[in-house]
What does this fold into?
Amino acid sequence: MQTTIAGRPVTGPVYEFAPVINDFLKDHLFGAIFGRGVLDFQARELATVSALASLPAEAQLKSHLGASLNVGLTPGQLRQFVEVLADTVGSTEANLAAASLATVLTTP
It folds into this structure.
């Protein structure tokens, strides 16, 4: 599930520093929580994007916008979602999400 959502195997400095973190993510987050089937991947990513735009957590937001594309959301749907954020959450959060989405869409 983790590789499907991320679009590739997840690697990086934090996993090299503490490999057990990836085990916890796979067992708990992707296994126990995602595996329950309460939300599909697209709905879960939209909820995550909302939360990250509100924190703000720009690096994670970009990662999850990319994951949103990996699980089948289109750029147009994500742009519409940014509009929903502007209407229901706030312009600060929507502006961060819009800028992050623009970066994700232009990054090869």
